[in-house]
Amino acid sequence: EMMSEFEQPPVDLIMVTYGNRDMCTGNIQNIMENTDYPQFKLTVIDNHSLDDTWQGVCEQLYRYTNASGLQTHINVGYGQACNLGSIITHNPIMVFLNSDIKVKEGHEDWLTKLVDALTAEKDVAVVGPKLVNKENQLMATGVRGTNKNRRLDGWLEPDIGKYNTPCDVLSICGAVYAIKREYFQMYKGFDPIFFHYFEEEDLSWRLRHDGLRIRYQPKSVLIHDHMGSCKDRRVLNGFSGEGQVIFENRWREWIEQDTTEYPQNCEEE
To answer: 90 pLDDT band (50/70/90 cuts)?
Structure first.
């Protein structure tokens, strides 16, 4: 049952940028021109890029009536930049995007598929797409397993249709994170204690802990140029390690106690 154009809610795409001007501007153009959804607006939050990225981003944004942005005065971290984007936008659905995301050819309906899955049921709070890299290897199919034993199934396998079933998962990759605004506000967004990494997992777990659902929707496909926005592996590993310690401590009890196995509520093909 598809929604008519009149029923499709307007969407805010919120993209966080930091450095890598050419990639950011190219992907903004790609998303703006290859998304066939009737009503969406792109808001870019530049996390105080130290080069001329913001200038390039502005030149690109000026070309579209449904795009705007702002630059922070310091790098506030990924989750907090998303929170800022949520404050200056108002549409009922938000999709947070990394700057290294673009539309895969033939999947211009990526946003329609995400919105359909998100609005299908009241208790679905978050939906994530299938992410592949330029070589068409899987980058994200939702986090599966149990709270204690989490798995990234399919990681770097060729996308041969093995992960094409929509289902509920533990959490989804923060590179493309579609959420109902009401839930984002109710849960006060991403916790700024996470500078980079684990903020999306933490929010997914807070929602799921209260019985809300996180869903993987493989009918929506995007390309994730992994680590495109930061090539410094050492810096990224530092952020990831810090985030993981906070996350594991916060959720220790639930990790030990809840052995529910995901995926769940899988749609029949």
So the answer is: very high
- Residues 57, 42: Cα–Cα separation, whole Å: 12
Question: Of 131, 128, 108, 106, nearest to 35 (Cα)?
Answer: 108
Is the distance from CB of 67 to CB of 61 less than 8 angstroms? yes
Q: What is the pLDDT of residues 35-59, one digit of tens each?
A: 999 999 999 999 999 999 999 999 9
| Whether residue 166 has pLDDT greater than 90 | yes
Cβ atoms 114, 48 nearer than 8 A: no
Instruction: Name the one residue in this structure whose structure tokens are 């598809």.
Output: 2
Contacts of 70 (CB under 8 A, 6+ apart): 43, 44, 45, 46, 84, 88
Task: Please tell me the distance from the alpha carbon of residue 111 to that of residue 66, in angstroms, as a whole number.
Answer: 15
Residue 215's nearest CA partner among 253, 255, 183 is: 183
DSSP 98: E
Residue 263 · residue 169 · CB < 8 Å:
yes
pTM above 0.70, yes or no: yes
State how far the Cα of 178 lies from the Cα of 111, in Å rounded to an integer.
9
Listed residue (246, 147, 153) closest to 196, CA to CA: 246
How confident is the model over 209-227, as pLDDT tens digits?
Answer: 999 999 999 999 999 986 5
Check residue 205 and give left, alpha or beta (phi > 0: left; psi -120 to 50: alpha).
alpha
* Beta-ladder partners of 215: 127, 168
Largest Cα–Cα distance of the chain, in whole Å? 52
Quote the tokens at residue 151: 């798995």
